[in-house]
Specification:
The chain is α+β, with helices and mostly antiparallel strands. It has 17 helices and 11 strands. The chain is about 45% helix and about 15% strand. The longest helix is centred in the first third of the chain and has 30 residues. It binds iron/sulfur cluster.
Amino acid sequence: MTASFHAELYKLIPEDHPLRKINEIVDFTFIHDLVRSSYCEHYGRPANEPELLFRLLFLQVLYNLSDERIIQETQVNLAYKWFLGVNPEDNLPDPSQLSRFRNHRLGAGAVDEVLISVVRQCIEKGLVKSKTIIMDSTHTLAASQKQKPLEVLRDAAKRLFRVVVKKHPKLEKKLPKLPGLRKEDQEDAEKIMLQYLANLGETVELLLPDHEGSISEKVRIAKAIVEDERLLANKGIMSAIDPDARFGWKSNTKSFFGYKEHIAMTEEEIITAVEVTEGSSDDGKQFKELLNQTLDAGIEVHEVIADTAYSGKDNLEEMKSKQIQPVVPLNPIVHNGGLRQEGFEYNKDADFVICPAGQHSIRKAVQGSKQSGNSRSLVFYFDTEKCKACPLKEGCFKPGAKSKTYSIRIVAEHYQEQIEFEKSDTFKERICRRPIIEHKNAELKRYHGMTKAKYRGLFRMRIQAILTTFVVNVKRMIKLTEKMQSAS
Ligand code: SF4
């Protein structure tokens, strides 16, 4: 950029402005390499455009603003414009360019590298000394409302019908019409609508075998809804607009509808890995991915601190094979290898078992005394009234049975070493470090918009999560650098 006469105004920005520090300490040029394969510099695109758009995304997350608001604010904010490297009188890109860059350029595969690059910058600057990572998960509410099964089906059908007619008006007469439900149909309304959605999806595929873009997207959603066994039990897809969002549990009594972010971070509070899943997913299953992302970023890991959800047999074995010390309290349900019957899942936040139909156990009991050793079991009880009406009861619930239970045998001695370690002072002292990750989760939510999804779908939620962790890492990087400079 050639500085214009108006660039003199930038002298008004205080020397200690946070954006000046960020600009001095953080290298944003890595973004050019990341988006090169998905970016066209021809046809008049300025060579520095990727960095300018990425810096705009950075400001957007830092100040928690929408696509439109960040452009409006930057237009009149000297510090923002200076940070972008443009002249005060220069125009800014259209907000739609920002979302295209985020979804098509970054989302096309480079987004994971965004986090890795900031972690590597921290390592190069000597800011990461600890060989410990702490893992945890947090949740984000979906951008859309929860719907009842009939609304999901009707909405998905209307959206598919509308998009096909908009692009191919001549096909309107060939598509099956939305059934008008009469009063006497109400009981079977969901089944009628399910049949209609399946029929509509098949007709579209037949009429438009090479469909693409928004039609393909709506066909994919229709198929997922039709094939979702939990839909009618009100436990599966709950939004035709955001079918990836799921119902999850924060505790025994509190639930949410949305997504989960699983994160790993160092003791210096630098986030090294992020995985985004639907709200109902199991935290422990993300362990390997978080560990591998952390190792790939160049962090040496000698110790993992996490809660009981990560004490699964596979996770403990993985740590043992890599000579990593688990500072993870054991939970008999998790560390005995999880649940054996397919479709049943244990939720450690709520401490209940969820069955394939999405119902959760209503109470639990321990069977057998401590003296009986390996014959002790944890028994979870389900509501038989729900089982009687369950569409998946075949092979699960015998008609006339007085109870429906799920038992987990408590086997202690396989983990004797870990049980002994759990009693040690070292364990007690190290596990006290775990809450610092909860503060990090709170920062992501309170200041950077992770309480609620800004966009719909797992793909966009993932981009939001990674950009947000990039920003909080940059904030932390500045603090750690200043601390290091003042100590030397
Ligand atoms: S029969 Fe009962 S436990 Fe089995 S899937 Fe249905 S509701 Fe769940």
